[in-house]
Design goal:
The protein has about 425 residues and is α/β, with parallel strands linked by helices. It has helices at about 75-85, 100-115, 140, 160-170, 195-200, 210-225, 235-245, 260, 285-295, 315-320, 330-340, 345-360, and strands at about 5-10, 15-25, 25-30, 40-45, 50-55, 55-60, 85-90, 120-125, 150, 175-180, 190, 205, 225-230, 250-255, 300, 375-385, 405-415, 420. The strands form 4 sheets. Strands 1, 2, 3, 4, 5, 16, 17 and 18 form an 8-stranded mixed β-sheet that branches. The chain starts with a strand and ends with a strand.
Length: about 425
């Protein structure tokens, strides 16, 4: 399909410029003012009011297939991403079978090829069985099929194992995306070991269980030259360790999630929709994360979209499974609470959600210019809406943002030149 979008405020070279965009054969064919509609199969007038951006990339999602399709499927999760303006999702490996060999990874890629409505790129496991102990996988056998390597849901527990993994990934120029968690420091905890935890007699997770492994791994990345990405950081110590490592020239990048930037442990309720791993930390931690976004220590914002069944999330903070959904609320939460509040610019948010993830993981797209792949989203910044989980496309319903009033709604998602979601 040849598609012409007229009068869009397009994100070009980190600025918004009024432009027409002609899309043909899956690519951005031309940009300019008053492009002729001759030959276009469809013309959309963006009214000089809607913004056109490179499609969002989420480098940390759980689409639950294979193995847990009662929670989410490749189809439902990718459709939720498309609704929210995402054109690429990177899927985490806590699946059954774990993608720790080409045969197991192929089970997932076959499903992706059949059912995904946008780009879905899988991570392979770091360790066999994704156990965080034992043996590392055959990285060379998986390297050309995986966007990177992760044991997400499990931290790699020994320095020796992580060093071996980093050395082998460095030789292949592949990235490790690490879930950092020291098992022996967990002590059965399930929310942050802070003020709310103590006041309500819960079991806490200490901050050191996260930052101790980040500190170890930054040192290993410095030794090995491995590209190292830290998943879902949540503590002030994590921010500072990564800040200092970057200053030393370590090839380290990191992400945090919308909930960690907008909520703290004192916002908890006795409800499973507030339970995730890592947990919501203290207000001081939240403020340090925001500062990390502002100063560039934190590179990208990823949702850690982690759907569970209603039954699995109905057992309060103590008994519910860890994980919340996040794709369909991410932009609205961040635009409302960070951009509209004057914390960061809209341009900075788009950079963190659309451009920087592609730079880190070596993905195509991210620029609105001639010849680039047409992975795009058209957004109405003025639209106000209330978060209603019953309206989600994802099969998951557990969100800490339920009933929040947000601004900014995606109207159309274009993936490889084809319209995959529309609400015009």
């Amino acid at each position: 399909m040849t598609l012409l979008i007229k009068n869009a405020l397009a994100y070009i070279d980190n600025n918004f410029k009024l432009s027409d965009i002609l899309i043909k054969d899956g690519l951005i064919n031309s940009l300019g003012i008053a492009i002729s509609s001759d030959g276009a199969d469809r013309v959309i007038d963006a009214l000089g009011k809607y913004i056109l951006i490179p499609g969002f990339v989420d480098v940390h999602v759980h689409l639950r297939e294979p193995g847990f399709s009662y929670k989410e499927t490749i189809k439902s999760g990718s459709m939720a991403g498309a609704k929210a303006g995402y054109t690429t999702l990177c899927t985490m490996p806590n699946l059954n079978p774990a993608p720790d060999c080409p045969e197991n990874l192929k089970v997932q890629t076959d499903l992706i090829e059949r059912d995904a409505v946008i780009n879905v790129l899988p991570f392979a496991a770091i360790t066999k069985g994704r156990r965080g102990v034992g043996e590392v996988v055959d990285f060379s056998a998986l390297a050309d099929k995986a966007v990177g390597f992760s044991d997400d849901g499990t931290g790699v527990q020994t320095q020796e194992l992580m060093k071996e993994a980093m050395e082998k990934c460095a030789a292949l120029n592949k990235i490790i995306s690490a879930h950092c968690e020291v098992n022996e420091l967990l002590h059965g905890g399930y929310i942050h070991d802070g003020e709310y935890c103590k006041a309500h007699n819960h079991k806490g997770i200490c901050s050191e269980s996260e930052w101790a492994q980040i500190e170890r791994d930054c040192n290993l990345a410095e030794q090995t030259g491995c590209k190292y990405h830290v998943c879902h950081i949540s503590t002030k110590e994590s921010v500072e360790i990564i800040r200092q490592a970057k200053a030393r020239g370590v090839q380290v990048t990191c992400e945090t999630g919308p909930h960690y930037l907008t909520m703290c442990d004192m916002d908890l309720q006795e409800d499973g929709r507030f339970k995730m791993n890592p947990p919501l930390r203290s207000r001081e931690d939240m403020q340090a994360l925001v500062e990390g976004v502002v100063d560039g220590t934190i590179d990208v914002i990823a949702t850690d979209h982690a759907p569970h069944s209603a039954q699995e999330k109905a057992k309060g903070l103590a008994g519910s499974m860890m994980g919340v959904v996040g794709l369909e609320t991410a932009f609205g939460v961040l635009y409302t609470r960070l951009v509209k509040a004057g914390v960061i610019s809209l341009e900075k948010l788009i950079y963190m959600m659309s451009v920087r993830p592609r730079e880190i993981f070596g993905l195509d797209g991210g620029r609105i210019e001639e010849g680039q792949i047409a992975d795009l989203a058209l957004i109405n910044l003025d639209k106000k809406w209330i978060v209603n989980p019953d309206e989600f496309v994802t099969m998951g319903r557990a969100t800490p943002f339920k009933d929040w009033e947000l601004e900014g709604e995606n109207l159309m998602t274009i993936c490889k030149g084809e319209i995959v979601y529309e609400a015009l």
